[in-house]
Design goal:
By secondary structure, the protein is α/β, with parallel strands linked by helices. 27% of the residues lie in helices and 21% in strands. The longest helix is centred in the N-terminal third of the chain and has 14 residues, at 44-57.
Amino acid sequence: MQLLLMSNSTGPDGGYLDHCADVLQEFLTGVSNLLFVPFAVSDELAYGAKTCERLDRMGVRADWADRTGDLVGQLRQAEAVFIGGGNTFRLLDRLYSTGMLDAIRRSVADGVRYVGASAGTNVASPTIKTTNDMPIIEPPSFVALGLVPFQINPHYVDRDPDSSHQGETREERLFEYLEESDRPVVALREGAILRISRKEVLLLGSLGARIYRRGKEPLEYPAGTQLDDLLDI
């Protein structure tokens, strides 16, 4: 199993995949055929074309998953699959309706490399219960790919002490999740990436991550930290 799970695909300067280009290129070394899944957005054609063009500039040949065609056939030809960001509920619903959820799960177990960004990272978890997105559509289940045994919260932001916002902070929402579940949550700040290979989990990127466990104080981890114990849950 080889996974690259990114908090975000667009950097603070608006550059698409620029901030993670080196890591992504290294992860995809030797891959001659990648399938990009644009199901999390409404304009799949534009998103697919944009991503395939960007990957081509990295030297990676890519096609995008077309829901009007033979998706499972496309997946069989792929050496890597990349699921992009957007709305996680819409993404999961389309993965279910196309039969791609089980197909991707099987492919990754057979050695196909998996890249996720934002919503694509969310669905690598056992469920999508720690997404930040609004439920604009109701998927058949919250159960996702389950490629890792822990939950992920991309785009994690710390509380702004100067903010006048009186709603729940991101941290408070994650504590609420842990009231109902004992699965740890890896909160990835912008630019953070998890590189997972067999029994190794390496935290990459810039701002690090915060890990929440039920009944414990959350802990901070900088980039470069090995988090292999997360796979022993």
